[in-house]
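Hey, I was hoping to borrow your eyes for a little while. There's a protein on my desk that I can't quite get my head around. The fold is given in discrete form, as structure tokens running alongside the sequence. I'd be grateful if you could look everything over and explain what you see. Here's the protein in full, and shout if anything looks odd to you:
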Amino acid sequence: MGTFCESCQNKENNNNNNEDSTTPKCSKNDTLSDTILLPKQCIDDVIQNEKPKNIGNNNDIINNKNKINKNFAKSKTIIINDNNIKSSKVINRTISKISKKIKKLNSLKISDEKKQKLINDEINLLEKKLSKPKRKLSKSEIGPRNKKVSKMPVFTRRKKKSTTLMENKNVINQLRKIQMSIPLFQESLVQQQKGNPSDKYIIGKKIGAGSYGTVYEATNIIFKSKVAMKMIIKRENMKPEYIKNEIEILKKLSHPNIVKIYEFYESTNCFYLINEFCDQGELYNYINKSTLNEQQLSIIFYQVFSGLCYLHENNILHRDIKPENILISKKEQDLKTNEEYFWIKIIDFGTAKIFERGEKEKRIVGSAYYIAPEVLDQNYNEKCDTWSVGVILYMFLVGRAPFDGYNNEEIINSIRTKNYDENNPKLLERSAEVRDLINNLLNKNIEQRYSAKEALNHGWFKKFNGRKLFANFCKNDIEPFINNIFNYILLSKIQQLVIAFLVHNMPMSDKFGNILKIYRHFNELGDCKLTKEELIKGLSNYRDENEVKQKVDILFISLDGDNNGYIEFEEFLRACVDKKEILNENNLKYAFKFLDHNGSGKLNSQKILYAFMNDEYNKDKKFEISIEKDISEVDGDGDGEINFDEFKLLIFSNLI
């Protein structure tokens, strides 16, 4: 189980478990028409809204008329009359047979396109069976009039275990499995914008400057949120590919301790990078204050190594880790100790590079105090970043750099020829665990030096349990988030795409912070790459383990948007957020404008694919077919395009 605050623990101990089990009943004055228009996309809704132990009787199915979205009136329908609705057990048997066929189809080694066609055939078969009129009973079946007439036809009297709600949902989930496998790549959420950034942002004061450009505080006019606008002036001696390299690397990253890029602009004279805003300053400002104890430092450096571990496992070198490039995004107080701890972000990927495993890098890149000796020798790998972190940690513990000098030449010579002072009195005052970590980070033998993953699992972090502090959430907070995760699999692909875009562009709120704590609680390795096993273990603390195991395959497919085999924080965040809260009209206008890249006021499948999918996947027609199917649900005139009002109907449909 998770770690809970004291107030929640007291509530848990005093909880009387009183629940309101009453359910609303239909009014006697309600009138129903004889014919219900039931779209094929809503068959699963009829099934899911019935009682858990059975599909329900005829009246239950008819009453679901009020639950069918009127927006589906233009879609293909099946007409089910009051007089010919089939027995619930017949429906159960039909679904059970189709479920078995679908399982066989999924096991076949055929293309997804052929598999999709076969599954669609099975859906059509289900439609025909549900709409087929019930046959009349013969006199022999009805029997003499003076005998009691069975309410159920003879051919349904065999005792058979009814299909549960969970089994029905599993059938529907199987039908949606191929649609959910449509990938959503992180980099597709970050795009180059046209025009002037001042049309969308109010540019404020200067907050930083470097060799490449100047950083300004700016405000997003729509979200009213602050961003960091990095303006880079194009100069004769500057290579534009370096800036484009930084953009391409940032686009691929999704980690809570790495700065996020929202979008970018390129004009004749400048590049503009719109990044996440961190208003608490640089980590460098706290080096000489000597106010941070080992508990606080362990929390900071746990995050740094978590970010580096993520970068290195994605084959990305930072090459300029220094306290000026570690920003504080948030300060939070530990209620038990009243100590302040920091949430941090790694920034500035101007010198970062995608590397090949087993190959050495040769270009000398870095800052004097923090550069690793093998970089100076032009023969290095990703462990040059962990050396830099070791230098920063030493500076916090001792108050000075391990390798210093009066100028860059002396500093570089010191790095090449000297070892750090292990017997410094201030260092000896610190714990044996942190001194051991320093020793393994500032090891000049690359093979023996710690990797980011090894450092993340060091005993120093276990001693102060920094991960536990980040997983300190209220029990009352987690329940709605867990519900949102399970409901996420019922959303259409367009709904998921729009939520992904909005989540990426919204600032980190306190509610998002609570979700991050839950995510870190589930992610025991601390690398922000949530595995299926970690997801099962985490959810099983709050739901029935058998239910979790039954749903986990399709749930994992749904959450793993880019199909890379693990769930990143932003993917987890999409599932946890309150959908009705994030999908308000103002946000939907922002999303619609993003999708409508030519400003025509209409959306079609090509525009949506253009916004979210890369060229490789655009060539596959199954993705376009899936999007067109969603659009057809609300396309009033059937021209394959929808306006903003129809777009809202599509996004709001079936929200839970």
Q: What stands out?
A: The chain has a mean pLDDT of 77. The two ends are 26 Å apart (CA to CA). The longest helix spans residues 88-107. The longest strand covers residues 201-209.
